[in-house]
Amino acid sequence: MISPPLVSSTPKRKPTWTNLEQSVLLEEVTKKEKPLFGKFKGCGRGKKEREAAWEDVAKAVSQVGVYVRTGKEAGKQYANLKCRATDKISQMKRPKTGGGPKPQSPTPIEPAVIDSMDGRPSLQGLDSGIDTGGIHRFPKDVRKRRAWIRAINRKNFAPNEFSCICSEHFEFGWHSDDPYDANYAPTIFSYKEKTVDHEREERVSRRNLQKEFEESKERAREQENRSLSFSMFAHSYSKDKEEEMISDLAAPMTEIEDDVETGVRLTRDIGIDIGEQLIHFYHRINYLAPKCEKMVYWRGSSSTPDERTRSRRCMALDPIDQFLATMMRLKVGLYVQDMAERFGVSVGAFSQYFTTWVCLLYKELKELNPFPSRDVIQRNMPSCFKSFPNLRVILDCTEIFIQRSSSFVNQNQSFSNYKHHTTLKFLVGITPSGVISFVSEGFGGRVSDRQMIERTCLLDLIEEGDGVMADKGFTIKDMLEKKGCTLNIPPFRSSSNQFTTQEVLNTQEIAKLSIHVERAIGRVKNFHIFDGVLSLSLVPLSSLMFSVWCWITNLDVPLIES
Asked: How confident is the model at residue 426 (pLDDT cuts 50, 70, 90)?
């Protein structure tokens, strides 16, 4: 006798949902949003009406699938999709803590889930979506959650599971788990902007000016009275005293002249010379003095213009000392704490000076270093470039190390396969005479040379008939031909696997001339702030600093002799 087969007591589980079933599910949920999620909009739908709506959604899904789905299954599947999608958003925005798996890429269905949630009140007004990553869910940690609610400062606000906050409310777009960090809770809100009574400030300013004017008139009147009384009673004693003062001043002047002569002899004897060009450079700095009086000091992107203006009233350092501190930081690469100790100011004050002066130098030096015209380049063309009479610019790229960001997206964009490190990449162009004529903004180390040309304004600066010299990495011949320009690069090896004699000569000649752009970049990297890894706090200022470094090197002796 044959025994019957064993039958499992557990019910057979239905297979997973197909992409088609999930798409129909999202479409039906969007259509029936009011009966399904009426409680989010204050409609007060009953339980039976909501269950009937889910059954209608399940019927529509069953028509395109193989198995019959129930309303309870449809609701559970939508809840699972929603949780997975929102979790991936938080994972992609979560700061790196030193371990953990890499965030998974979103499936094709998950962006549609986020789009279907845009109508909920907790997501209205936000740039939602997995790709943007511009929102943060409220933390589960009780202490951190309370800190966020206090910072929002909204009456009777109780966040739910769908509540999010935009990244614009955080200083750097992300939040930290450290309670002592400034990014532990959101800090940027409109209610924190202080209203300024401009009329009251104008009245106070007018009263102060009137008071200073009256005091100056009183001092002038007293000085006039003293001079008159002195001239009436001093008589010949005044003249004798004046001659005595002149003779007393003559002795120090003689000592100063002797010191100057001694310095000249020391320069001639032991070879110590600061150079006439350096003297002229420091004399030219005086033209910045009037601009310093109108300078508005940087206090962060979240401060108002009035707050930055008021910060000029009490400066611990004179403008010339601020300039000296900025140049020391750029050239020597000292730490901010060290510089603050040297000049007797706080770390925050020194950072404020440094940022403000870098912005001022960038603005002023940019006007002094425009992209030269073709006539100017041809008049100053060195004899070694006679084989390339139409050459306008020589291009090369350079990279500087930066700290690794906690964001996986930023790490991916800034990691350089050439340097095996996170870097910032700059495009530098020099004229045939060796002057740095073009400096790009900083790009992530992953960007290619061709992409940098496309994203900068270099193609708009060159003209038809110009020549561009670069190395083999610049595959931009088609881009230059559209402008009517020529590209001078070393020739590529032909199918014969051997260079011809002419190709060898061309390679040697181009390599001999293009080395000058590397020499120019080498001058820039003599600023020792490049020696280490650039801090993430300086990355927003890096493009301005690099441009200032390049333009200051143009004040040095000529790179190429005529």
From this structure: very high
Distance CA 99, CA 406 (A): 11
- Residues linked to residue 137 through DSSP beta bridges, in sequence order: 164
> 426-458 b/e with 16+ CB inside 10 Å = b?
bbbbbbbbbbbbbbbebbbbbbebeebbeebeb
CB neighbours of residue 544 within 10 Å? 18
Q: What is the pLDDT of residues 49-101, one digit of tens each?
A: 888 888 888 888 888 877 788 888 888 888 888 777 777 666 655 544 444 55
Q: What is the dihedral of CA 182, 186, 191, 196, to 10 degrees?
A: 30
* pLDDT given for residue 519 in this prediction: 85
Helices (H) and strands (E) in the chain, counts: 21, 9
> For position 299, what pLDDT does the model report?
59
Tally the C-alpha atoms within 13 A of residue 308's C-alpha that lie toward its C-beta: 16
Average pLDDT of the segment spanning 395-407: 89
What is residue 29's DSSP assignment?
H
Question: 416 pairs with which residues across the strands?
Answer: 421
**Across all residues in the chain, what is the average pLDDT?**
74
Q: Is the backbone of residue 125 left (phi > 0), alpha (psi -120 to 50) or beta? A: left
**Cα angle: 287, vertex 290, 293; to 5 degrees:** 140
Predicted pLDDT of residue 271: 42
Cα–chain-centroid distance for residue 34?
A: 44
Enumerate the domain spans of the chain: 280-366, 375-553
Give yes or no for residue 534 having a pLDDT over 50: yes
Q: Which of 157, 154, 143, 155 is nearest to 185 (CA)?
A: 143
Assign a CATH topology to domain 375-553.
Answer: Nucleotidyltransferase; domain 5 (3.30.420)
Q: Give the H/E segment covering residue 90.
A: helix 71-93
Residue 476: Cβ-neighbour burial (10 angstroms; 0-12, 13-18, 19+)? buried
What digits encode the pLDDT tens for the residues 246-271? Answer: 555 555 555 545 544 544 443 444 34
State the Cα–Cα distance between residues 400 and 12, nearest whole angstrom: 61
Q: How far is CA 164 from CA 133, 272, 456, in A?
A: 12, 65, 36
Radius of gyration, alpha carbons of the chain:
35
Q: Could you give the maximum distance between any two Cα atoms of the chain, in Å?
A: 151
Residue given tokens 């800090």 in the structure block? 187
Bridge partners, 486 (sequence order): 467
Beta strands in 207-349 (DSSP E): none
Query: Which of residues 96 and 384 earns the better pLDDT score?
Result: 384
The pLDDT, as a whole number, for residue 227 is 46
* Residue written as token pair 């009384």: 229
